[in-house]
């Protein structure tokens, strides 16, 4: 049994070890168990808990008695009885199963989603009914309160099949899977589905995201990304710890359903096809791209099932020995260690197993080689013990204060204040407050040069009028500390200082001269500002002004800079203010309609060129009008003359 740990969560692999062939007789199996230690140490909870080639999905009935798994080849379903710890029956199918669900408390009602868009219903005796869905299916889930089957497939939609009414419904999850923290390639489609009670539903996508929904809203409560870009194969809920167990073909992740924080994770040896959590226990089973189906026991998630309760006692015994790991009988050595032991010639042989930047070798062989290569190991042990004793005595001496690289003066000030607070708390018998230097929230302030305090800035000098005198003392003390650290000498309790009476008198003098110091700092700041203005004036005199050209858009005519400034000012206003202004100018007309709504009519602004053209046309029409009037007047006068003549 292998043991691994992540985030202080121990995971026991119960299916580790070699499996025996089915065609071996019981006598030969017993003989192999006597000879082989690995076979003797393995744990076989259920007899022949495997598939001929590959297992694709695995489920547990609601009563906890039956474990059902599907796989190939040929396509088949196997049912295992936990009370008998053996296989109950095997049933072959027409096509490969994508996934399946147990509808009843036992194995009597089963639904299979097959490759050719077929949904096949089985009863206790065998095949019962067969139908098809619109898209190629990838997963489905059964909603017990409403008797609905929710199917997901080669699209971003969820189809609902009611077993009483035969009615379909859909929910689009594609846009919800795209968030600011996720990067996806292509259109996400749904690959996994799981219900939690009557209102919660979890959906897995083909791009590696898990979306948790409340059925009363179309927006997800949380989106969790696996960051592998692989389709989600399985989703499980763990109610005791409020966890969601999601898996793709590479990794199984357990995370909090409210915050998304990782609880632990597992990476099996073979690709994962499905994950099944045994109800009300810490047992986890996986269907893999291998004949053997893996079984894991995680005590943090819950106790062992009733039919294998001995696992609790077994894991408690293992936890009593904290040094028990996967490689108890092996020693990890590097290439340099092998050269020192004189075993470099074993590289490539069966006595060494390559792992990362070194090798694993038998611990007995390592001890023998070390005794032969280094017969004076006791002398080395003695010298190491003496060195440890010397280090312990050094730790009792007065240690030098190691200051950070950034904001050394601020750190020294905090150390002094911390010492004063410790003395005060000892007198008052109070608890010491946490140090600012040891707080991780302010760690960057003493590491990043961007947080260095600028003592020459105006704000610092005005807010700290007595900083010059205090900083001089601290600089002297800082210089002494650096000299002691460089020379390796021990620090005195007060390397440079005065008596307490002198310090109190000096503090009173500082309080009296506070106003004078502020005035002095203000005067210095005025002088510095005056020098800066003179320097800027000299630079302005030396600089030569160059013409700056602006490009006017096509169709517009430049009149003055005031128009552009007015236009920019207008664009900064809100839409409501702009509409009110347009209404005042007469370019916008807002009126009420008969049905109670609002109707807005806009008049488009005309360009300068259009305005000039319209004015020219207007003058031309007016000139023609006056010419027609004069011509008609002359004609009438001529007619009158002929009549009188």
Automatic annotation (TrEMBL):
Location of region: Disordered: 485-514, 588-645
Compositional bias ranges of the Acidic residues kind: 485-495
Main location: nucleus
Domain (Nucleolar protein 10-like second) ranges: 326-374
Biased composition (Basic and acidic residues): 605-620
Pfam families, alphabetized: Beta-prop_NOL10_N, NOL10_2nd, NUC153
Name recorded for this polypeptide: Nucleolar protein 10
Keywords (A to Z) from UniProt: Nucleus, Repeat, WD repeat
Lineage: Eukaryota, Metazoa, Chordata, Craniata, Vertebrata
Position of the signal peptide: none
Highest taxon of source: Eukaryota
Family: Belongs to the WD repeat NOL10/ENP2 family.
């Amino acid at each position: 049994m292998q043991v691994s740990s992540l985030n202080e969560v121990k995971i026991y692999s119960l299916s580790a070890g070699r499996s025996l062939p089915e065609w071996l007789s019981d006598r030969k199996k017993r003989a192999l168990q006597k000879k082989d230690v690995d076979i003797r140490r393995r744990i076989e909870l259920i007899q022949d808990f495997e598939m001929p080639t590959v297992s694709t999905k695995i489920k547990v009935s609601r009563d906890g008695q039956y474990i059902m798994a599907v796989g190939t080849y040929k396509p088949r379903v196997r049912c295992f009885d936990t009370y008998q710890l053996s296989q109950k029956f095997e049933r072959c199918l027409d096509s490969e199963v994508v996934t399946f669900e147990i509808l009843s408390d036992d194995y009597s009602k089963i639904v299979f989603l097959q490759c050719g868009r077929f949904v096949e219903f089985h009863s206790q005796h065998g095949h019962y009914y067969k139908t098809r869905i619109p898209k190629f299916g990838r997963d489905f889930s059964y909603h017990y309160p409403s008797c609905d089957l929710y199917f997901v497939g080669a699209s971003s939609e969820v189809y609902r099949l009611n077993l009483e009414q035969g009615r379909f419904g859909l929910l689009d999850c594609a846009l919800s899977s795209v968030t600011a923290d996720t990067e996806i390639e292509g259109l996400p489609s749904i690959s996994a589905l799981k219900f939690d009670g009557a209102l919660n539903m979890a959906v897995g996508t083909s791009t590696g995201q898990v979306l948790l929904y409340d059925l009363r809203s179309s927006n997800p409560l949380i989106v969790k990304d696996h960051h592998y870009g692989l389709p989600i194969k399985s989703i499980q809920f763990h109610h005791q710890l409020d966890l969601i167990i999601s898996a793709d073909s590479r990794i199984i992740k357990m995370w909090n359903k409210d915050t998304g924080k990782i609880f632990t994770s597992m990476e099996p040896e073979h690709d994962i096809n499905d994950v099944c959590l045994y109800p009300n226990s810490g047992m986890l089973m996986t269907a893999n791209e291998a004949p053997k189906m893996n079984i894991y026991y995680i005590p943090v998630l819950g106790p062992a099932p009733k039919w294998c309760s001995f696992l609790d006692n077994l894991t408690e015994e293992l936890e009593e020995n904290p040094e028990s790991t996967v490689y108890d009988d092996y020693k990890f050595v590097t290439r340099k260690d092998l050269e020192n032991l004189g075993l470099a010639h074993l590289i490539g042989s069966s006595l060494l197993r390559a792992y990362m930047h070194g090798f694993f070798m038998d611990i007995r062989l390592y001890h023998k080689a070390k005794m032969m290569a280094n017969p004076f190991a006791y002398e080395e042990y003695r010298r190491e013990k003496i060195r440890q004793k010397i280090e312990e005595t050094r730790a009792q001496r007065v240690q030098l204060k190691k200051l950070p690289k950034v904001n050394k003066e601020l750190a020294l000030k905090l150390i002094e204040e911390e010492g004063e607070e410790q003395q005060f708390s000892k007198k008052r018998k109070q608890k010491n407050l946490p140090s600012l230097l040891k707080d991780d929230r302010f760690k960057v302030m003493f590491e990043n040069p961007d947080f260095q305090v600028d003592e020459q800035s105006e704000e610092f000098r005005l807010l700290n009028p007595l900083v010059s005198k205090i900083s001089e003392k601290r600089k002297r003390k800082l210089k002494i500390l650096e000299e002691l650290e460089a020379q390796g000498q021990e620090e005195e309790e007060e390397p440079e200082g005065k008596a307490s009476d002198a310090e109190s008198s000096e503090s009173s003098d500082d309080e009296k001269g506070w106003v004078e110091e502020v005035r002095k700092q203000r005067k210095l700041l005025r002088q510095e500002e005056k020098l800066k203005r003179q320097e800027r004036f000299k630079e302005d005199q030396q600089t030569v002004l160059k013409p700056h050209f602006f490009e006017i858009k096509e169709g517009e005519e430049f009149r003055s800079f005031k128009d552009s400034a007015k236009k920019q000012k207008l664009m900064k206003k809100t839409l409501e203010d702009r509409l009110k202004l347009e209404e005042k100018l007469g370019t916008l007309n807002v009126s009420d309609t008969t049905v109670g709504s609002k109707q807005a009519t806009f008049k488009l602004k005309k360009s300068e060129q259009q305005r000039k053209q319209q004015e020219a046309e207007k003058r031309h029409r007016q000139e023609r009008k006056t010419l027609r009037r004069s011509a008609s007047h002359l004609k009438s006068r001529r007619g009158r003359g002929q009549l009188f003549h």
